[in-house]
Design a protein that fits this description.
The protein is α/β, with parallel strands linked by helices. The chain folds into two domains: 149 residues, Leucine Dehydrogenase, chain A, domain 1 (Rossmann fold), CATH 3.40.50.10860; 153 residues, NAD(P)-binding Rossmann-like Domain (Rossmann fold), CATH 3.40.50. The strands form two sheets. The chain has a seven-stranded mixed beta sheet, with helices on both faces. Strands 1-2-4-3-5 form a five-stranded mixed beta sheet. Helix 2 crosses helix 15. The radius of gyration is 21 Å and the shape is globular. The model has no long low-confidence stretch (mean pLDDT 96). It binds nicotinamide-adenine-dinucleotide. The site of nicotinamide-adenine-dinucleotide has 24 residues, from helix 8 and strand 7.
Length: 427
Amino acid sequence: MAAVESVAKPTMECETQHFLMAQRQLDEIALEMGLDPELHERLRYPKRSLIVTIPVRMDDGTVHSYTGYRVQHDVTLGPAKGGVRYHPDVNLGEVSGLAMLMTWKCALMGLPYGGAKGGIRCQPWKLSAGELERLTRRYTSEIINLLGPDKDIPAPDMYTNEQTMAWIMDTYSINVGHTVPSVVTGKPVSIGGSYGRQEATGRGVAFCVRRAVAQVGMEKPTPTVVVQGFGNVGAVTARLLHDAGYKVVGVSDVHGGVYNPSGLDIPRLQAYLSEMGKVGGFPHADQVTNAELLQLKCDVLVPAALANQIHEGNVGTLNCRIVVEGANGPTSPEADLQLHEAGVFVVPDILANAGGVTVSYFEWVQGLMHLFWSEDEVNDRLEQIMGRACDQVFEMSARTRLRPRMSALRIGIARLAEAKRLRGLYP
Ligand code: NAD
């Protein structure tokens, strides 16, 4: 690891296990591609990080203070772009690692953005709609100096949604004195959102599944699929693959999963979830735990819930030919290497779930132009960009024998490095 050892290693508050995992990926590919050590050092840490305390009046009249974050990893290629998540695990390291991944993802997809991420450490499922609104508005006002359509553009992530984006957009607009739809993406269509945005990440994941199946030369007419997580990403992926003739044999949510080797009826499962609030108990299926779900025999496994679900402790028990990462960081670096050695084809997160940020980019462009596209136009353009990125990553892997993850990182980081070289160092 000469390239790593030759650079200074300041100790940072963000150096949690999650962040160090993202940094290790960078170190590995930097060494492999011979990245300039001074540039490598600049990319190992976020450009700027803000931690805020967010006092919120609760419904019972008391005031509770939450901790929120916004981290911009890099802004060389354009404004910072990245989601906002509400979750008890949110901390500076997690947000910083995810911001770094956003930098690589935007560069890989050829989008004119840098990478960012934000979040609030909270238990969103315990908050009322009023408490969530006050939390979101105060968070926005605390980080407002970082935000703007030319500076930093939030989007939804875990446990945030269109409504959250509408509150952020409204709070920002009121503070600057006029309506600024392009300060967020993933907002409702009625206030400047894009058709196709809500389904975009799952649509991109489903597209990558089809491309990966073709890439490995799987000849089965109906490949089998298991999806972990049945939220925005997982449920859309499952439905689109079901519609495309794939057999979705297992899905899960936070409470557990359901399995039917003959295939689950996904539209009926979605209706069941709307009524019952969970997939567990769905008729004509066996109940499985989330741990058991990952071990089910299938052609394609789609982790679409949380980070670090496939790790050294369970990677040997997986029973699939392809992994397509809907979630961010679902596979640990050690597990990734083991999967590669076992011949499992892994489509990495920065490619597989990039449909969301790609249609976010379309939403931002449409907002700036005040000219809106049809859903078919959005989906066609998404397929073009996803297809081009898949071609580039798969071609580089075939040519260099690099894992697809390393190929994707290499393409993204090489683009960023070229931009940084041309812009030079100020002053
Ligand atoms: P979501 O909140 O809509 O859905 C998450 C799903 O995961 C739910 O079904 C939930 O029950 C399930 N889940 C939660 N904890 C679990 C656990 N311990 N085991 C199994 N399942 C669990 O979130 P989402 O928007 O679908 O995001 C899922 C993942 O995709 C996250 O890693 C997110 O960062 C990533 N992602 C989302 C988008 C997007 O546009 N929404 C874009 C890129 C990446």
